C-alpha cells in the first residue's frame, strides 16, 4: 500500500486547548492506514477573528497515510466533532474547541470547494509556518515556495512557544 505524506494544522482555544490538541494528535495517530510521523511543539497565538476570544494553542503534525485526501479530511472533521467542535458559517474564525486543517497532501493541488490544497492562507500565517518549519523546514508548499523562505512574509499573530502549566496530576506523576 502506498502512503502519502500529509500535514495537518491543529488549533484550539476553548476547553483546555493544549489538552484538545494532545487528544487530537492521539486520534490522528489512531486513524486507519495512517502513521503519525512528527509533531511540532505547541505555540500560542492571538486569534485571527474576533478579538474578544482567548488566544489559540497551535501545532502541526506530519502523517503518512494510505487514505485518499478527501477521506483523510472526513476523518479529521469527525475528530473535531467528537471533541465538541460545532461548525457554523456565522462563527468563521470564532472560538472553537478544535480546528483541524489539512494543510498539504503530498504535492496535490486542488481548487475543489470541498477540499482546497494547499490550504488557502497557510503560506501567510505564522501559526502554521513556524510549527511547519520546525518539523519540515525544507518542505515546499506547491505554488508558494519553501516553508523556511515563506516565514519572512507571513502575518504576525504574536506567536510564541507554549509550554502548558503542569496539572496537579502531572506534577504528582513527575514527583514520582
Distance between the termini: 43 Å
Helix share bin: 25-40%
Shape: globular
Low-confidence stretches: 168-174
Give the tally of β-strands. Answer: 10
Oligomeric state of the chains present here: single chain
* Rounded radius of gyration (Å): 16 Å
Main sheet makeup: 6 strands, antiparallel
Derived structural class: alpha+beta
β-strand amount: 25-35%
What's the total helix number?
5
Helix and strand run? EHEEEHEEEHEEHEH
- The pLDDT mean sits at 90
Give a verbal description of the structure.
The chain has about 180 residues and is α+β, with helices and mostly antiparallel strands. It is built from 5 helices and 10 strands. About 30% of the residues lie in helices and about 25% in strands. Strands 1, 2, 3, 4, 5 and 10 form a 6-stranded antiparallel β-sheet that branches. A two-stranded antiparallel ribbon has the order 6-7. The longest helix has 14 residues. It starts with a strand and ends with a helix. The relative contact order is 0.21.
